[in-house]
Each structure stands twice: as structure tokens, then as C-alpha cells.
Target: Ribose 1,5-bisphosphate phosphokinase PhnN
Amino acid sequence: MAGRLIYLIGPSGSGKDSLLDAARLRLAERGCRIVRRVITRSAEAVGEAAEGVSPAQFAAMNAEGAFALSWQANGLSYGIPRQIDDWLAVGDDVLVNGSRGHLAQTRERYPTLLVVLLTVDQAVLRQRLLARGRESVAEVDARLARNTQFTDSLTATPGVFLLDNSGSLAHTVERLFRCLDAGHSACA
Model:
């Protein structure tokens, strides 16, 4: 029996990494693997525990077929290691911190994936993005505008399940597991 690809998406600052960290042990106990992305951002950058590589290294890895999925967003390149296909083939569930903009391509390759859209109140999101200090106020405001467009289009997309992370992280973790158990909009 093939495993299930769980595609977690949401705007930068919505708390995807915090959610994954908080749920990591329980996910592992269920046999669900959380994938470590490869990103063309310094490994010392604050944020997710990704493998940081140079743009040249990323291009070489991509050319060698190292990624099951890859995309570019916000001036960076992102890759999901090809190893996920092996894990899925042996029946393991795999959770990927994905891209809203790459959802259509991911669905083509993995048509049975479960899509979880992590949302957060815009005011909370703005505070989080500013607190990270990675971008200027203008860049944060541009992100927020893009976020509104993505969220509006994705909430109308069948098979995308909303998970609000505006409240406590513990509550969001519990709703994530309800969604995974039910495999449908029970995570809302």
C-alpha cells in the first residue's frame, strides 16, 4: 500500500515550521516522515531547519535529478529530495512543507495528496514577518498582498483543507491530527 503525501502550504510566517516542530514526535510515532527541504538560503538563516545550498549547488542537484519536486519563490530555489518517492512506495506517509504556487504541478505528480493550507490572521502574520527581520516593511506588505490573492484562490479549490494558526499552537496541532485522521475538511 502506498503512503500518503501530505502537502502543507501557507504564507511565510504562518507558523509551518513551528507546527511541524510541535507535531514532529507524534507524526514520527505514526510513521509519518517530515521532509527536510533544500533551499538556496544560508544554513545560518533564521527559520526552518532546511539544507542550505548555493544556487550553483542547487542547479547541479536539480540537473542530476535529486529532487522529486522543485520550484522557485521569493528569489530562492526550493527542492524536495527524491527519496520521498521511496518512502511513499513502502507505505510511509510523508509531510512536505510545500509551495502554494507549485500546488498544480505537485498534484500532477501526486494526484492523491492531502493539501493542508495553514492560515493566520493578516495582522498576526504581519507582526510575525516584521519580527523575523528578513525583509523591509515594503517587502512584508508585498508578501501580505500576495498572500491575500493566494488564500482567496486556494480556499475555493476543492481538496484544500484550511487550518487556522491564529490561536494557540497546541490547538492547531490537535486540529492537524484530526485532519490527518479524517483525511478531509475536519481540520477546519
Observations:
- The radius of gyration is 16 Å.
- The longest strand covers residues 67-73.
- Confidence is low (pLDDT under 50) at residues 184-188.
